[in-house]
């Protein structure tokens, strides 16, 4: 019989494309993940994965197994939920800032849904300041978002510098004395940081694109419309960081988890632990 732990490692390996990231998500060592895959291959007498210079990929036999593996894990979760004691139940309303959801949220939600099938998870994506306002009115139980340096609310996950980004920095900076700025609408934290830095540096600016979606802002920046500000690790592909002294230095931002007072502590901790385990190690 196939080992469900081995199948779980196999499915997550397909998602991450990395033995190291798979181990981090499961809380086990990279060597243990390797052993799981080797034992699964031995059980089936098939080669399931191969590595190239960049990522781990599935073989044709691995692709064929993937659907069955997911179905078996899903069935296991349903059986445990039906007959298990002490399973988490209820509703959890999660708010996540736009830039975070675009970069690293999928695997976290996937793990939570699989581990806690009886929890009704609701996701709201918005600007950090808007999420905090919703939480204050009782509409969100847990918020994953940014905060300004010096603020103390929430559980700190990591701190990261903001950077100026453009498709062609030399062209953007030379074509006009007024900096064309691409930004989220107010009350965006990154927009405020950028505008305050430009004002302190006496750099004239104008907004050329406002959009509540990072994909829209990225499209404008890739088209060469102007300059976008993002955390360095979340810089979209196709954009280059503007370095040197051509623009003012931007302050760092901090990413935090903020639970609502009165929210179900067990549900909040279950999701928070997954977020901390998958996001914090990437910045340690």
Major β-sheet annotation: 9 strands, mixed
Mean pLDDT: 89
User: What's the multimeric state?
Assistant: single chain
**Which percent range fits the helix content?**
40-55%
Spatial extent as radius of gyration:
22 Å
Number of helices: 11
Provide the succession of SSEs. HHHEEHEHHEHEEHEHEHEEEH
Give the uncertain stretches in residue-range form. none
SS content category: alpha/beta
What is the strand content? 15-25%
How far is the first residue's CA from the last residue's CA? 39 Å
Tell me how many strands there are: 11
Based on Cα principal axes, name the global outline: globular
Q: Overview of this structure, please?
A:
The protein starts with a helix and ends in a 5-residue tail after the last helix. The chain is of the alpha/beta class and 284 residues long. The chain has 11 helices and 11 strands. The strands form 2 sheets. Strands 3, 4, 5, 6, 7, 8, 9, 10 and 11 form a 9-stranded mixed β-sheet that branches. The chain has a two-stranded antiparallel ribbon with strand order 1-2. Helix content is 44%, strand content 24%. Helix 1 packs across helix 3, helix 1 crosses helix 4 (60-83) and helix 2 packs across helix 3 (30-44). The relative contact order is 0.14. Strand 7 (179-183), helix 9 and strand 8 (205-210) form a beta-alpha-beta unit. It has helices at residues 4-16, 19-26, 30-44, 60-83, 98-101, 106-115, 128-136, 169-174, 189-200, 214-222, 265-279; strands at 49-51, 56-58, 90-97, 119-126, 142-148, 155-166, 179-183, 205-210, 227-231, 240-241, 252-259. The chain is globular.
